[in-house]
Please model this.
Amino acid sequence: MVPVFYYLILSAILFLCGVVGFLIKRNLITIFMSIELMLNGVNLSFVAFAAQWGHLSGQIFVFFVMVVAAAETAVGLAIIIAVYRTRETLNVDQVNLLKL
Amino acid sequence: MLHLVLFLVFGAMCVAGAVNLLIQKHPISSALSLVVVMASLAVEYLLLGAEFVAAVQVIVYAGAVMVLFVFVIMLLNAGEEELTKGSRVAMVLGVPGVLAGGLLIVWALIHDSGGNAVALGALPGFPQKIGALLFHEYLLPFEVTSVLVLIAILGAVFLAAKPETPPAPAGRKG
Model:
């Protein structure tokens, strides 16, 4: 038997690692990976709460979150490729203009 | 006991992978440590009994999504990132703020979540149960999701397509 809040604390740690990565990283792709890390942390708390309350709906929601994350990754990476084509850099400090 | 040991081992792997993602300078190393995080999260899902979610986590996240990431990193030939003034500001202001927020979250979790414990495989999420729920109660969100995926495919193809090059001079063409 493992208390549910162990799982919740693990998910909070993952989410915070994602937030820190989002703040301190300067590479567009790594920032994007930090967002994935945050989504994974949230998914873990969904599954933990599903187990706590005995509802399968939590696991269904994880499924939907995964679909949205996959769609977001596909579109986001396409945007990153388009940004790289016009600016030839992935550093977010140099991508600060809406128009070239 | 076994449950706790497995939880601690794979939770430690998870956290180590997440911290490694922050430390590494090269995007490929970050991507590979993200694979470690996702694989050990799949084990945590199995411990909670969510078999279908664990399988989807390995196939979709650790498989498809990370392949997409690695592919783009290789395609763009991304090198090591350099520290800039912006990242120093984020380090000085952001990290303490995030840590304070994190302490608040953890305190609230310990304080308010009660001592409920879950057994090994507490809520078995068999694929047939998930499928029955998905195609009865959650049919509309499921169908809307398919539209979302279609739009995402079209958007990705449109955004990543090469911009139209001006037509070559007529005389060159055979």
User: Anything to note?
Assistant: Residues 40 and 54 of chain A are 21 Å apart (CA to CA). The first helix of chain A runs from residue 4 to 24.
